[in-house]
């Protein structure tokens, strides 16, 4: 599949790619139109958008796969998806990978939290045994039919067992076949440097920018120099869209006007252009002739 080969080529190249998050087809299309080379389907964002609820493992695997199928069909760039814990044990992981692969995604992230999981920046996380997660990674690798489909091995152990334990886990996930490694929620620059030094020879690395919270003072260039290949920004689109809707609704509620004149707004026509209406109208004419 071309998007899977594209993602592999991107990760084989120099530097890092910035990958914004999305939560539905519209946000994924906007990421593509902005010129980014890949997009990430965030479980946190999908939980908010689809359920109106926090990221506490409430979404089912089928809901996430259905969402990813719509998103993947709407774009031409690689879609990396949050596969949470794989929704169960190693056998569940096999089916999760198979259904995501059928949906057309380019990479699947699997994490070592217990089920039900929660957002990696929330308190109360727990992780499964390293050996159990190794088995789940092996199951994921064996389940894929397309060897270009990439498996992201994520560990949430840093805040529970310590950074060194997280590095040991990540190396074990790479040995089990994970194509990309992701240590969740490092606290400071020194911890980020230790993670990069310990893992950048094992597999391409993900760094997740802590959007909406204080972030370590590292630029994208700094992160690339440390050896990170993917700079993930999973919820920025969600936060921006939510803030925009709140402003518009507040204006409507207080001033009986749907638009704040101080804030530029899309017109109906421009939005239709973004969604590709002119192309569809041309197709209508062609098929009517």
TrEMBL record:
The keyword Lyase applies. It comes from the Bacteria. Keywords: Lyase. SUPFAM superfamilies: Phosphoenolpyruvate/pyruvate domain. PANTHER family: CARBOXYVINYL-CARBOXYPHOSPHONATE PHOSPHORYLMUTASE, CHLOROPLASTIC, PHOSPHOENOLPYRUVATE CARBOXYLASE. One of its GO terms (molecular function) is oxo-acid-lyase activity. It comes from Rhodococcus rhodochrous J45. Gene3D superfamilies: Phosphoenolpyruvate-binding domains. Pfam families: PEP_mutase. The keyword Lipid metabolism does not apply. This is 2-methylisocitrate lyase-like PEP mutase family enzyme.
């Amino acid at each position: 599949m071309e998007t899977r080969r594209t993602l592999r080529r991107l990760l084989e190249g120099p530097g890092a790619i910035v990958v914004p998050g999305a939560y539905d087809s519209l946000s994924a299309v906007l990421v593509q139109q902005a010129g980014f080379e890949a997009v990430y389907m965030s479980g946190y964002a999908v939980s908010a958008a689809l359920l109106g609820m926090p990221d506490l493992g409430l979404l089912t695997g089928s809901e996430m796969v259905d969402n990813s199928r719509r998103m993947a069909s709407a774009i031409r760039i690689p879609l990396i998806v949050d596969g949470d814990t794989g929704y169960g044990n190693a056998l569940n992981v096999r089916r999760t990978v198979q259904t995501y692969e059928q949906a057309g995604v380019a990479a699947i992230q699997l994490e070592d939290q217990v089920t039900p999981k929660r957002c990696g920046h929330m308190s109360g996380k727990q992780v499964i045994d390293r050996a159990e997660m190794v088995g789940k990674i092996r199951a994921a690798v064996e389940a894929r039919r397309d060897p270009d489909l990439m498996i992201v091995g994520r560990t949430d152990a840093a805040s529970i067992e310590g950074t060194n334990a997280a590095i040991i886990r990540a190396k074990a996930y790479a040995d089990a076949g994970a194509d990309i490694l992701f240590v969740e929620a490092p606290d400071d620059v020194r911890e980020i440097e230790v993670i990069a030094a310990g893992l950048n020879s094992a597999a391409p690395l993900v760094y997740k920018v802590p959007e909406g919270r204080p972030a370590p003072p590292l630029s994208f260039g700094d992160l690339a120099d440390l050896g990170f290949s993917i700079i993930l920004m999973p919820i920025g689109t969600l936060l921006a869209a939510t803030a925009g809707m709140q402003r518009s609704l507040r204006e409507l509620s207080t001033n009986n006007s749907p638009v704040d004149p101080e804030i530029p707004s899309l017109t109906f026509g421009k939005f239709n252009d973004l969604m590709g209406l002119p192309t569809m109208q041309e197709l209508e004419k062609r098929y009517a002739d």
